[in-house]
């Protein structure tokens, strides 16, 4: 089956991403949702990405039955999934370098439309070279404009204007999540504004929608994300100092800071703080369902998929007031925004959203209401129109 509004005859959509599930992360899950949904919609879809370790098995109950989630049948997988090619890679500064990707891009049929997921180096360069040599059209979706940090930070300062700028300027369209990102992309990378499309992230409403919530005692706080500097989990730990026993806090995810964060929990004398590790699928849905408040203390974001999932589950949100977060959290309506690095204000916000059960229910209802505009069905349709306009 081919959609009436598909990009055109003989055209395949090729998603190119540094990582893809079973790797966990916002970019990975956005790429998977788009590729899988477009495949179900009848498009010819392929994914090119790096190899990843298999996820640990989950024994969490499924969202509807209370039984372990059933793996899809072969027929279901064939109908719902794009073709996936994974390439051997080695990692340099958290960036997968895939020699095979460059070769595969050059061998793509001329009518292939490349959907480039941008968050780090190498993948954009590989797509850019394929464009120059084979004239492939590509859409560049800018997930996160990472700030320089650490000893190798100076390389990023060179790479952005010298490499990322030309990659974005030669794209047929650049996709960003927010108006603030659009302005930054136009000014920092000199991309023409008419070629910058604003398409937010999406969420599967049927998977995450929750019933009306009631506060637990003690209230349950949930963080989901990589345990990396960007997510700034130490800010949350500092905010909990002295009152951690008044909450049950679950940190979901793994990353390079895990040991350091566990040591910080011990050094601060925190209680009721647990490190859950990686979670996905029904296991992750259950974690959202059992929580009361979602907390995201990030230093920077694109448009975090975890915030949209928290909305769909009716969770009030406490987050730092940074781009991406402030586009999803309406301060005082579905949660509270706090200044970055202000542990005292974060502490006050956690108490504020859990103090009054009636106010809590209002915040929760508003989250569910706001989530409806981020349905993946509507988001995929916007991408189809974008593809269609390129041919």
Salient structural properties:
15 strands, about 400 residues, Rossmann fold, 6-stranded parallel β-sheet, 15 helices, alpha/beta, about 15% strand, 7-stranded parallel β-sheet, globular, 2 domains
Can you put this structure into words, describing what you see?
The protein has 391 residues and is an alpha/beta fold. The protein folds into two domains: 13-202 and 375-389, Rossmann fold; 205-374, Glycogen Phosphorylase B (Rossmann fold, 3-Layer(aba) Sandwich). It has helices at residues 26-40, 74-80, 99-106, 123-134, 153-170, 179-188, 205-208, 233-240, 258-267, 281-290, 305-312, 325-328, 343-355, 357-371, 376-389, and strands at 13-16, 45-50, 83-87, 90-92, 95-97, 113-118, 137-142, 173-176, 196-198, 220-224, 248-252, 273-277, 293-296, 317-320, 335-338. Helix 5 links the parallel strand 7 and strand 8 (173-176). Helix 3 (99-106) packs parallel to helix 4, helix 4 packs parallel to helix 5 (153-170) and helix 11 (305-312) packs across helix 14. It is globular and about 60 Å long. The model is unreliable at 53-78 (pLDDT under 50).
What order do the helices and strands come in, and which of them pair?
Elements: E1 13-16, H1 26-40, E2 45-50, H2 74-80, E3 83-87, E4 90-92, E5 95-97, H3 99-106, E6 113-118, H4 123-134, E7 137-142, H5 153-170, E8 173-176, H6 179-188, E9 196-198, H7 205-208, E10 220-224, H8 233-240, E11 248-252, H9 258-267, E12 273-277, H10 281-290, E13 293-296, H11 305-312, E14 317-320, H12 325-328, E15 335-338, H13 343-355, H14 357-371, H15 376-389
Parallel strand pairs: 1-2, 1-6, 2-3, 6-7, 7-8, 8-9, 10-11, 10-13, 11-12, 13-14, 14-15
Antiparallel strand pairs: 4-5
Helix pairs in contact: 3-4, 4-5, 8-13, 11-14
